[in-house]
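Worked problem 6 (solution included).
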Amino acid sequence: MFVVERRVPGRGLGDTVGGASADLRWEGHVGAGSGSGSGSGSGSGRVIRKYRLPPAQLVFVTLVLGLPGLPLAGTLVPEDDLPVTFKAGMLVLMGWVYLGIVWFWRAATIVYEDHIAVRRLFRTRRTAWSDVLGIGVENDPSSSRTMLLDREGRLFALPGGVGAQPAEVRAIKDVWVRSRGEGWTAPAEGFVSAARHRASARGSAMVSAVFLTVGSFLVLLLVGFVLGDVLSWDDKGIPVLF
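Solution. The predicted structure is:
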């Protein structure tokens, strides 16, 4: 369940609407907005702030994950004693690692005057401030992610290390409050709960896909070593029984 905090006449910001326990805490001031959002999220307003991981972290991730792959690929590819299937499996795994590195470099949260943009590996999602229903940090000691809930019920994290900077989270919320328009109301508890469950299902699917990929590679690696002891390989990498 979620706790939705809002300011209404005669009540403080700490008063709650909804359940007593929360995984996420939305904060806002009903009626405090002074502008009107674009409604489409496709505007090209002035960039207020761009959030990315610090350059030192990006360089560290690139060196630790990416640098070992270059000599490894240079050793595996020309090796004639290894089967083609094993080489292919290793190259696919390294490809996933390098995609992850590219994601780290591309991931960003860009705050505009009229919308917010979330940039990931293959796409950039733009949401008008008037379509943002809530922004909050996950109420989980093991997580510092800042989540955004839009009018279509999509709940997603803001990348670029936003959650690790409480002052910056507040700055983003201030822009949202000024620009969302006076028609904003706190989302209903059921709406937020449904969005949370959908986001959790997407996260579980992604984790399962990663485990499936890694597991398939490990099985392929094990089979390659086992068959290497009992089989010989022709020049096309096809096993041939002794």
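Discussion: The two ends are 62 Å apart (CA to CA).
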